[in-house]
Amino acid sequence: MPFEQLRDRHVLELAAGTGFWTDIIADSALSILATDFNVATLQVAKDRCTWPDCVAFVEADAFSLDELSGTFDAALAAFFWSHLPLSMLDSFLEVLFGRIEPGAKVVFMDNRYVEGSNIRSLGLTTREIPIKRGCWTAERPTKS
Ligand SMILES: C[S@@+](CC[C@H](N)C(=O)[O-])C[C@H]1O[C@@H](n2cnc3c(N)ncnc32)[C@H](O)[C@@H]1O
Fold first, then answer.
1. How far is the CA of 59 from the centre of ligand 1 (A)?
2. Domain total for the chain?
3. For residue 87, is it within any domain?
4. Residue 55 forms beta bridges with which residues?
5. Which end of the chain is more exposed for a tag (fewer CB within 10 A), N or C?
6. Per-run averaged pLDDT (10 residues), the chain, 144 residues
7. Ligand 1 site: residues with CB under 6 angstroms?
């Protein structure tokens, strides 16, 4: 499981949304700073359950991480990559890699494009769209 990469690590989670994946890794990570730029969504995440002390939520834009306090040897971004225009991916990675430790593990998870999955061309309902999920991991290079 890709989340094993985050076990016993201090995780910076980007675009945490309502905290679904935060909840999944809360018991195995050493700490999680879950961030999102949408305050209302973060409030839903905070209210989701009684969180262990190692989990904190902070409003933050994924493109502006300098003001966050903490040291992170892992990062998670679930269902965020596909929201970014291709032209912004490089700057996103530059900001992220600038905020985590060299060698930090990074887990990205998202839907994958499936040929022919266009809902209109198939005449399907949204529940029937053949979406595949993908997950990939990366490591911040130890040299910049
Ligand atoms: C599809 S949701 C994914 C939420 C969560 N990771 C999940 O998988 O359930 C995308 C999230 O990205 C957040 N978001 C979009 N742009 C952002 C940005 N520039 N910085 C931080 N969060 C952002 C939105 O507020 C939203 O919560």
1. 11
2. 1
3. yes
4. 32
5. C
6. 90 97 96 98 96 97 96 96 91 95 93 63 51 66 66
7. 15-18, 20-21, 36-38, 41, 61-63, 78-80, 83
